[in-house]
Amino acid sequence: MNDTSIIFGDSSRGAVVVLSSRFLLAPLAGISNTVFRLAAKKHGAGMVCTEMVSADGIVRGNPTSLRLMTISPEERPTAVQLFGRDSDVIAHAAQMIEANADVIDLNFGCPARKVARGGAGSALMKQPELIEDIVGKVVESVSLPVTMKIRSGWNEKRINAPEIAKIAEDSGAAAVTIHPRTKSQGFSGLADWNVIADVKNAVSIPVIGNGDVNSPEDAKAMLERTGCDGVMIGRGALGNPWIFSRTIRYMETGVIPPPPTTEEKLRHLLEFARSFVALKGERVACMEIRKFVKWYTKGMPQAKEMRRAAVQIESLEELEKIMESYIDTVADMAHNAKG
Question: Would you say residue 172 has pLDDT above 80?
Answer without folding.
Answer: yes
